[in-house]
Design a protein that fits this description.
- It is a single chain.
- This protein is mostly helical and 68 residues long.
- It is 40% helix and 0% strand.
- The protein has 2 helices and no strands.
- It has helices at 2-11, 24-40.
- It is elongated, with a radius of gyration of 26 Å.
Length: 68
């Protein structure tokens, strides 16, 4: 974004008018601010789930005779 601004100044160019919702610098600044707010808040730990001793993710639950 800074490079674009420098090029505009150096060559005397202007960007076309953009809609209000398309503001890159403000959007990036708000995204960074929201990440900082989330990371500075209280930390929560994930709950530990019991495993069946396998490191393979079970995608489909066992049904019928397999469930026994």
């Amino acid at each position: 974004m800074d490079l674009i601004e420098r090029m505009l100044e150096k060559f005397g160019l202007t960007l076309p008018t953009k809609p209000d919702y398309y503001r890159q610098r403000e959007g990036l600044a708000s995204a960074i601010l929201s990440v900082r707010e989330r990371s500075s808040g209280p930390r929560t730990t994930a709950t530990v789930t019991q495993s069946n001793g396998s490191n393979v993710l079970q995608l489909f639950p066992k049904t019928g005779d397999e469930a026994d």
